[in-house]
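Two proteins, back to back. First:
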Amino acid sequence: MGLDYIFTGFENASPIDWYLDDSGVAHVSLIYDRERQSPNRAVLHWHFQLQASPGTDVTLLLKNFDNIWNGRPGSPILDETSCAISEDGKAWTVVTGRKTAENFLKLKLRLGAGNLSVARIEPYRLSDLQAFISRISDHPLVGVAPIGQTVEGRPLEMLRIGREDAPYRLLLRARAHPWETGGNWLLEGLIRRMMEEPPDFCLYAMPIANKDGVARGRSRFNLMGKDLNRDWGRPADPKLAPENAALESWLDHMREENRAPHLAIDLHNDNSGKLHISRPEGDYTAYLSHMETLEQALRDHTWFTEGSTGATFRNPGSFGGGLLVRYGIDACILELNCHWSAGLNKAPLGADWMWMGQQMHTAFSAYFGNRESSN
């Protein structure tokens, strides 16, 4: 008795190649995303379903983790790497895989019910977003506006939660990199709390920037090979990165109406969980002061504990640096640690990030309140 099949015929499933060796171990080769005109490649997402008789024990070897970031080799897996599993695709738990000497990830699993979904982190699909928008779109504080399309023509929307005449405006973007689902769970938690307790700020949210990548189970780049968290130092090419061009057009419109966001955060996942603060050339004393206020608000009111990048950190062309230099918006990157939350002392799941989103309601209120009192 052994593994019958690995099924990938569903939304957000990762492209894979696989085989069973003579001992019954399933070798799963994940397929790299590749960046346009660059050596960079990435495998960060896996999502597939194991099928076998109930009670079957399965050993997996996941392969192709020899990533290249910014021209440098690196592996996305740790000696012990958490994964999410589910028998029904709805209720998820965490298991731990071990890194081998060959840079493979080894997982030993029991298929109690016969089918078992395996993912890097708890999935959040396009259908999940559409269902959520359908549930909230009739709320008097919610607006949904189309702002553009992806490479494959999927519609991109901007959600508004709160009064348009609120004294402060907040922009959050999620899923520039398709695998990073934590931002979507956080947004759901924040939006639900805002509808229950309207704050003194208005939230604008681009919930899934890289919709094509999410639908196709990709890891990092859009379908034209562009990293949507790069090249923000200049206007986006609407053919290669229509997702960024759409957001830029929205920002241009908001700036023309004197309604540009006061704070913008790009939500990501990684294995460190830091707040990435931009430090371009020039005098950005006020910005850095605002980032200190933001970090303290996160520490005081959420389970965030990982801290921020140091004074020598540079990441030119990222969302944070581009919006700061080109638009004068206080902008940064918030990495949500998908491996281990020190603040929770556990590997996080969707419910944990939703809780963080609920806490963000208080954190952002404190941030804007402290910023107002310091001006």
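And the second protein:
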Amino acid sequence: MLGGAAAWPLWVRAQQATPVIGFFSPASPEDLTDRLRAFRQGLGAKGYVEGRNVTVEYHWLEGQYDDLPSLVADLVHRRVAVIVTPGSNPASHAAKAATATIPIVFGVSEDPVASGLVAGLAWPGGNATGIYSLVADIVTKRLALLHDLVPKAVRIAVLVNPDNVQTTEATLRDIPEAARAIGWQIQVLKASTSREIEAAFATLVSDRAGALFIGPDAFFSSQRVQFATLTRRYAVPTAWASRDAVEAGGLLSYTTDTMEMFNHVGFYTGIILKGIKPADLPVVQSSKFELVINLQTARLLGIDVPQTLLAIANKVIAVDDGRAHHRRRSPPRRAAAARS
């Protein structure tokens, strides 16, 4: 019978040397400077400093998922200590499909119980835990905010990326009811290339859609400059799940606070490296949300932003000099059970 270290679980043995974290992001490193800092702060809260007593191996998907299964399989083969997937539904599911032993810390925009990532929120079971946002609530609120800005619109276009299967399914599942609740008709458009984005704008303009609701997707975010150019060219109000896209020229975004999500993923990763099992760490629901409005874009589109929206916005990109004005936030909150 095996004894000693050889009999320990893989995820425990991986900690005996400098642990390696496999990090998957749907975006590019240039897009995540602040959020990576939040992730590292979360790790640091449990005593782990990248380059000193932990190694992070980054994989930047940049909205392309074809190589994802092989990348995850390589990490599993090399028995990394933890796989983290903040902000990536596809990477979270790929990791879950590839290993039942290596811990996974996710940040997802879908119900992890319904999608099969965990058995329950309070007691996840298995090897995965993390944080998730309430997509249906966010979609409803984002649509309502867009309606406040373009109240005369009767029909809007919804753009999704068919290559991002889980996120697209979630968006198209939640948005019809939310649109009906405010009296909007929706037109679904799909794009997974730059050329298809151009075609989508041409279609929605031809069909006289009053605004464009852009589904959450890393490829779309990476093309935010293209979207900003098309927004100005065709005078189309756009609502995003990404504040970066609004900073580039989109009209508004409403989503969970991604800083909170990255910080929590780092914090849970540190706890797991200390020896706590993912099954014993409850999945946390996002507790903070942020509204970003670009007043420069609103002016270009001839939209008067109500003072009621400006009063609740977390960030406003001002008309006068382009500088963004931030509102002070409290530190991210974490589940009480995770503070041990």
